[in-house]
Fold:
Amino acid sequence: MAETQALKQEAEAQKMKVEQAELNAELAAAEAYEEELKKHSPGSVHTAASAPAAITPRRTLTFDVTPVTVNNNNNAPLDNSTPNLVNSISNGNSTPIQMGIRDTTTVSTSNVLNQTSLLSPTNVMLDMLVLSQTKLPSYDGNPLTYYNFVGTFDSTVQITNVGDQMKLTKLLECCTGDALRLIDHCRVMSPSEGYKEARSLLKERFGNNNRITVSWIRHISDGPPIKPGDSKSLQRITDDVQACLSTLKAMGRLNRVDNPDRIKWIAKRLPRDVRGRWVKRATKIEEDREPSFSDFATFLREETKVSINPNYDMLLKNDDGKPKDEKIKCTGI
Structure:
């Protein structure tokens, strides 16, 4: 970690030097332009074609140049005689010049520099360095974890300035099993086509919304019943139900599990005493509306919280130290 931090600091320092050099070049060009303006009377109009040779316009624009007195407060209103004011430049010895650009788009030197620096080789090198030291999660083709993997990959790799070759390489490194077997041939394609094809194949095979929905429903419904006092298994099904809720809600498929019949099927896996308490909770909710899958997830979180509370663990056990198995008659499950 110390070596990585040192490399990152060195890259940042190099990046700052490049940005400073670009800024100095811009300021030098601006000063040269200001000196050229002194040869003309105030209010004269100059076009990009007649600009001093020291300046290379980024685009063809028409300038209205008027010497004005600028307040040091950057938030103060500027002179109305110069429309669409963009920037002010001063060499420290003369009156600052404000340049109005007759264009619907407002451009500033700082914004141009920032956009340029984002695409600079230094930034690309920095992103490559960080990615080489970043450990990404693996993906084996499990539909249940597709969105988790894609979200992490996009926020770590996709948003960087590295090229498609590096992105494809990182994607291949992350994939294992069925997922790797599906996209392994993409490495022989051109970087741009290979990366695009790999993402498309993964989405088509493992990111199909219907397949993900069915996989989640089966995962939380078809497991073995949980024994009384098995807090680990209760925690596991609670986590699975919460993950299913978040995933299907994000996909717009929550209606597939948000109904009493589906909830009853899942609740069959719970210990008898926990099922009894859910029946009581559901009956109370039914006084106003039908119980939702979100209600069921909240109930499970509360039950898990109680089951792992060490302060009252003894109250949940018999005198022989074994978990109590309350014989509660449950109907409708």
User: Anything to note?
Assistant: Residues 2-37 form the longest helix (36 residues). The chain has a mean pLDDT of 73. The CA atoms of residues 172 and 180 lie 7 Å apart.
